[in-house]
TrEMBL record, chains A, B:
The active site is at 142 (proton acceptor). It comes from Sinomicrobium pectinilyticum. Belongs to the FAH family. This is fumarylacetoacetase. Residues 134-402 form the Fumarylacetoacetase-like C-terminal domain. Keywords: Calcium, Hydrolase, Magnesium, Metal-binding, Phenylalanine catabolism, Tyrosine catabolism.
Length: 429, 429
């Protein structure tokens, strides 16, 4: 079925600013609370949010096999379970309905009043109920930088790294949408030279610039997904800030991996941009040498050209861009990650989220974490108020943005923006 | 509120065999499919399953604040969210209702026909929808054994182990109840002496004898749970077989921990035994030296004397007991694990599951995995048919049992019993 929603010539009767992340070619999916305190599934064109639950009730999705309440839910999980064909039918239909030449809804003021919202009338929620969250470690530059700092500069990349899309399980419950502030974690750290740990607020809170993909029901327990089919089970992507506490991580992570250094919070952008919408921005991934094992070999372009940037805003201060990177730097593709994740029979279901790992580029200004940007604190970054940052300070806001662009269209992710609060010191609620 | 359900003198009008795991003092909670193909929440006395959904509809829980459909669900999550006071009220009421001297239900044949089932009329399901699953690594003996084999025999225990209840995140989706067979995983391994990995079925599939606890909604994101309060948020425990593929683990686990070596499956016993029911079996945990940091220090007895055993049954062969261990060997208590897990503000919710880590005792016959029992394959175990086992073979069934016993009563967990199937080699369904 053609993705007619991607037609680059189409314009909408909803006004879209130049350089908007959300032209009519995007049609992302999210969940929001409306001005009437109703939770609904929606999409967005320009700065207008569209209530898909109401649109469906008004009959605008007639002919598409959808249950009556599919959009009147507090998560996209059931819609995602409906599968790729249905996602495509719905996106195509939305594009058609909001096409500048289609009077159906354009000229129905009553219906428009019901389904359209300005952004300040809604409150974005977590778009999916995340069953399991996995984080990969798929940027060669990031793995090399971390290996140089934490382990052996001469053998920074571990022997398995070029053979395995290394990944580990993370915590789902503490994933929050953009805008929800995050507390500096308390925890154990080992001061330099000490042999006994101390307890207190982490002194090395960091962001990690990542993207994450969201899956549909993919396989039965025990049955691998071939790499060639893997993308069929990917609904879409979000920006992902994998908050990290480097000092806690250093003391706890051997031998079973990061735990409290990561699970205090992760933040995502609230609009899921579908893989269909990203289709025009496919690029080849980096050449893989040595060739991976056959179950990880694929044909065609399975990476995406997504510009990414991170900025830091001190409390009452000015925003400074601290990193510019690109999703295409990833060594392992999402298809390889998903094929690897299931090769042992691990079952993947609707709403599972898989992080890319920190996306660092080849140059120091494209590194995806403060750990790398400040090289472990040795090269602090200058803020406009004259202060310096090696890691994130209380009151700082970290904002990540991402977008694709070609000569015709710009498809973006909006942002994930999160303020860091001081460590917990009060009483429990 | 007293736990009257624990009265050791009470007898039930339901017949209970001597040495049953499920006397009227147990009253565990589970989810099952009935002969009428209805999913319900239930309990068990002796070999009789009791439909709590039907009991509630018949009015037997009048006076206890419960929603009408609290037991007519496919998971215990909502009931667990109701909190400790409600769990206790319900258990006390069930004990009273099935007391041999109470004619209320005993003499109502019509109602008994509705609510009681023999075990072959029901099919046990997963008792909770598991949000996040965490696995700890809290047996000193196990950590020492593994350290000796995988790392340095002279410094088997890593420097952080005596300070941190080391844990890591696992996969929820692949946790299955007792009786569901598990496939041998495919994956990458590095043959001895090789520098390039090969792909194929794991040759070192292992069990890990664990127990897991299930939590209720415990804290808001950002707010730690003090160790003194932690047990209030633990609903109960199950037996847990943390299936592991040692050869896959060895190649993949540095630096981010085990991933595909674990997430192909974990198996649990289907009846959750409440912490209340285990109250009579509290014991002190091992002395902790050095003293842990203050946030991990506690008073009183916070371990439990739970006898554990593992047996192995070859296909068409005879069952052999391969290990006898005890939950009390754990160095870190559940209260410490939960306090540690949340000290950074990580939020814990109803239905989260936390595994103890392999429970190995001090003697070689009390080790909790084949890796340790066969000492990495150097001391294979003899089966009754003359064959040997270093790890688990296709067709083998691994069965774990657990129970507490004092002079008055035996409280057991039933079993988690799982057959290992050959690696996937067919077509996907």
């Amino acid at each position: 079925m053609p993705i007619t929603a991607n037609d680059p010539q189409r314009r909408s009767w909803i006004q879209v600013e130049k350089d908007s992340d959300f032209p009519i070619q995007n049609i992302p999916f999210g969940v929001f609370l409306t001005r009437d305190d109703v939770i609904t599934i929606g999409t967005r064109i320009g700065n207008t949010a569209i209530d898909l639950g109401a649109l469906h009730q008004l009959g605008y999705f007639e002919g598409i096999p959808l249950t009556d309440d599919i959009f009147l839910q507090d998560s996209l999980n059931d819609f995602i379970s409906d599968g790729k064909k249905t996602w495509r039918l719905v996106r195509n239909r939305i594009a058609e309905l909001f096409d500048i030449n289609n009077p159906e809804l354009r000229d129905n003021e009553e219906h428009k009043h019901i389904v359209l919202f300005t952004l300040d009338e809604i409150e974005m929620q977590l778009p999916v109920q995340i069953g399991d969250y996995t984080d990969f470690y798929s940027s060669k530059e990031h793995a090399t930088n971390v290996g140089k700092m934490f382990r052996d500069p001469e053998n920074a990349l571990l022997p398995n790294w070029l053979h395995i899309p290394v990944g580990y399980h993370g915590r789902s419950s503490s994933i929050v949408p953009s805008g929800i502030p995050v507390r500096r974690p308390l925890g154990q750290t080992l001061p330099p030279g000490a042999t006994t740990p101390v307890f207190g607020p982490s002194a090395r809170v960091d962001f990690e610039l990542e993207m994450a993909f969201i899956t549909t029901d993919a396989n039965q327990l025990g049955e691998p997904i071939p790499v060639a089919e893997a993308e069929d089970y990917i609904f879409g992507m979000v920006l992902f800030n994998d908050w990290s506490a480097r000092d806690i991580q250093k003391w706890e992570y051997v031998p079973l991996g990061p735990f409290l250094a990561k699970n205090f919070a992760s933040s995502i952008s609230p609009w899921i941009v579908t893989l269909d919408a990203l289709e025009p921005f496919r690029v080849a991934g980096p050449k893989q040498d040595p060739a991976p094992l056959p179950y990880l070999q694929y044909e065609g372009k399975k990476s995406f050209d997504i510009h990414l940037e991170v900025s830091l805003t001190p409390e009452n201060g000015e925003q400074v861009t601290v990193s510019k990177s690109n999703f295409r730097y990833m060594y392992w593709t999402m298809a390889q990650q998903l094929a690897h994740h299931t090769v042992n029979g691990c079952n993947v279901i609707s709403g599972d989220m898989m992080g890319s790992g920190t996306i660092s580029g080849p140059t120091p200004d494209s590194y995806g974490s403060m750990l790398e940007l400040s090289w472990g604190g040795k090269k602090p970054l200058k803020m406009k108020d004259g202060t310096e940052r090696s890691f994130i300070e209380d009151g700082d806001t970290v904002t990540m943005k991402g977008f694709c662009r070609n000569e015709h269209v710009r498809i973006g992710f909006g942002e994930v923006s999160t303020k860091l609060l001081p460590a917990f010191g009060g009483k429990r609620k």
